[in-house]
Task: structure prediction
Amino acid sequence: MSELNLMVTITERSKLTAFLSFYRERQVPVQLISLALGTASNETLNYLGLERSDKCVFASFVTDEKWEELRRGLRRELQIDVPGMGIAFTVPLSSIGGRRELQFLTEHQNYQKGEESTMKDTKYELLVVIANHGYSDLIMDAARGAGAAGGTVIHAKGTGMEGAEKFLGISLAAEKEMIYIVVHRDKRNEIMSAMRDAGMASKAKSICFTLPVSATAGLRLIEED
Result:
């Protein structure tokens, strides 16, 4: 059975249109785009014959089979292996909140939900929430009430949200916030349940999922608590 993954693509902003068109043509419409800045040293840039440039980050949801198709296309058509073109990688999802939300994120992909996957001997997971802009405080209040610690908010723009009405019965705004919260695996379901009031039935229109975390630093005091 195919696994579901978060696919992350990082490239220069000047190539945003080319990559976005590539994914749309291959029916991967759900995208979150955020802006970033590369950190390569001047020596490295000079060696590669590049100038410092702004970056964009795509987030998509793909099955194993879809990823193999995309990887071949990225290499052949966008020459992603050429230095300076960008990078793409996948991270397996541990869980996702809501059956309709799952159908929305995997539209046009042959995916049958099986048992939730977990990495062996992992204590924590990264809980990611995608919500309409301006509702991060509402979501964090709900998460803290269920035992979560702090979170990090990243601004992003959603594309390919046209399918939301088909699966969710609603339209989604383009301006998004992504909230990252590291949670203990034993508290994951409780925290995700607490955030249902900020889910699709609310103005926040949030979707949440988790990614496995293999190791952490900086959570010792929370663990002792």
In short: The chain is about 30% helix and 30% strand. The chain has a mean pLDDT of 80. The beta strands are 4-12, 31-37, 54-63, 87-92, 95-96, 124-132, 152-159, 175-184, 207-213. Helices lie at 16-25, 42-48, 64-76, 99-105, 136-145, 164-168, 188-194, 220-224.
